[in-house]
Fold each of these.
Amino acid sequence: MRLWQVSNCAACHQLYGLGGYMGPDLTNVHSAKGEAHIRTFVRYGTGRMPAHELSEEELDALVAFLAWVDASGRSRVPDSAVHWTGTFDIPAR
Ligand code: HEC
């Protein structure tokens, strides 16, 4: 997604476990924390995450992107799903 790349989100955040490690993995942040949480973090930042000057449309697109990523996968496989052979069951959602 273009905004994800130009805003350098991946420098600090992972999706599906891939990306920078300064900030948390965001694969499931949409369902875990909600849309308002995402908007607030991106717009205002925190002590450690920079604020981003994005338009309403750009924020909408980012939230939609993270919702899509969230629906497409899980950031990690729970230990309980791993079989001793090294295979794992895809957990039901
Ligand atoms: C310079 C590194 C950096 C960049 C670039 C960055 N972030 Fe972050 N982000 C962080 C850190 C560090 C935190 C944890 C903040 C804290 O707890 O103070 C965070 C937290 C978040 C959270 C809250 C996660 C949670 O689990 O509560 C969201 C959502 C988020 N970032 C989205 C984004 C998006 C979208 C972008 C790109 C537009 C982005 N970030 C760019 C470092 C970054």
Amino acid sequence: MKNILITGGTGYIGSHTCLALLKRGFNLTIIDSNINSSSLSISRVKKILKDEYYDEKIVFFKGDIRDKKFLDEIFLNSIKQNNRIQGVIHFAGLKAVSESLFQPLVYWENNVYGSICLFEIMGKYDCKNIVFSSSASIYKNNSLKPILETSEIKPCTPYGQTKVAIENILEGIFKTSSNSWRIANLRYFNPIGAHESGLIGENPLSTPNNLFPIVCRVADGSICELQIFGNDWPTNDGTPVRDYIHIMDLAEAHCAGLDFLFKNKPQFINLNVGTGIGTSVLELVNKFMEVNNCRIPYKYSQKRLGDLPFVVAENKLITSILEWRPKRNIEQMCRDGWQWQKNNPNGF
Ligand SMILES: NC(=O)c1ccc[n+]([C@@H]2O[C@H](COP(=O)([O-])OP(=O)(O)OC[C@H]3O[C@@H](n4cnc5c(N)ncnc54)[C@H](O)[C@@H]3O)[C@@H](O)[C@H]2O)c1
């Protein structure tokens, strides 16, 4: 079976994707610096799979993708062991949008330089298949319409700019290598929730700044109140609308993306990964309370600079070309996410 390198594989999306890939039979080589994660997520993934058979299918290396020597050794060893890395899913990166506003250089250095190191070593070892974790934050989107892959690209934060830069680097590699690479940029919308076992989930090592982890912490009492930024947005109830996608649906999109790349001719493709369904902050909070029978006290506060009223994917392209469609609804996202938080209030 093919060996896939997962950078950032112990993180939130990475760990769920490792689970989905193992179920499909892939061998995995995982790299993570653990700057925002714990390698315990791998033992939890194995626990979910409940079979020693999987132990031999995963190797983990703690290290940084900016260390080319480290990457080189991993690729070389995979060849020596007759388990050559044939594809990469590249999650490793810093992702706190607001932090990137204050520390842009840290984001450029980690995300962009780290990616350059990775692509260079992939090229050296003739590994030319990659799924890259891009983001909906690259779009300009000031309208109330679903976003297409061809919509205007104009990120308003250094975080989003690093994602565009990495996509552009990949496009350059594709064009200058006689189109020999297979590259899929998956532009995620808002992944939330956790695996239904409650054994793996989102585990930010610093204060969370995304809505869903904050809602979970308000539910367990570790944050006393949710702040909703603005209630006069041009949406049905005045709160911002987002396209929330269950983390396992997102994980499965990576499996489908890899399958697609391996089965088709070399190409460079951009795909939105969302449900195409918009949910407002208020709708999400109300659904969370209803499904989990708990209280989420909230108050409205000032809108934040750069926030947008409506960020929802047009997902026709991905659902037409990949063997994938989102299966889980907002109830399941709320239930599974709370299950993880309740069982693991301090993370792993
Ligand atoms: N979670 C989201 O809402 C979201 C949305 C769009 C895109 N993304 C992107 O998806 C990817 C995964 O996100 P996530 O939510 O799982 O975040 P995460 O922080 O849980 O996972 C990222 C992982 O990368 C590791 N990492 C960071 N820099 C590294 C480096 N230089 N070398 C090795 N490892 C490094 C971290 O330790 C972490 O485990 C990120 O690239 C993120 O930008 C996430």
Amino acid sequence: MGRPATRDVVCYHCRGRIEVPRSARTVTCPCCFKGLLLDDLVVSTSGWPGKLETCGVVRINKRARTVTRFVQAGDGVEVQGVLEAKVCTSGGVVVRRGGHVKGDIVATSITVEPGATLEGLSLCIRPLPSASRQ
Ligand SMILES: [Zn+2]
């Protein structure tokens, strides 16, 4: 059996659950007609200019210092550098050794490695909404 040709993602604009081709990198949400990024976002330099939004994973690399208003990631967030933002993900947040997160976090799980820093957080860890919301 091969992998299914589609995957389910949640639109980060309207929260609609949509099915997208597994090979797609961007898609237009059929509910709100806004563009969605499906690829992972990897930030490896400081000074990211805007919001970080994707249905994939947001990763803040070592030595990147990212100060932004909002991070929305469908599949999770991994921080090896510095992230100052409100983080909202339907996946987990992982803060690696040397990583530093300042801001509120909404996620389904959080992993903080020894040597990582969390600062001034309000945390909301909650299970995924049921997948069978049809
Ligand atoms: Zn939408």
